[in-house]
Amino acid sequence: MEQTPNQNTESMKKANDVSTYKLMTVGILIGILGVYLRFAYDSTTLSIVSWAILLIGTVIACKAVFKILDA
After folding, report:
1. So where are the chain's domains?
2. For labelling, which of 7, 33, 59, 66 has a CA lying 20 to 30 Å from the CA of 25?
3. Are 31 and 61 in contact (CB under 8 A)?
4. pTM of the full predicted structure?
């Protein structure tokens, strides 16, 4: 199978970078932890902390996605 010239562009190399997908995986795992803590116990303090963890995971995952889109 021949490669087209578009497959070797800088944007494709940046989008296929392993560190981008590692960052996305970390963000998703942090988000899953935040969701689990949100529904695990019924405590106001834990609920606020879990929302903060979920927000951090979401920001990290979105940062990775926008890194791919920026390529």
Report:
1. 17-69
2. 7
3. yes
4. 0.75
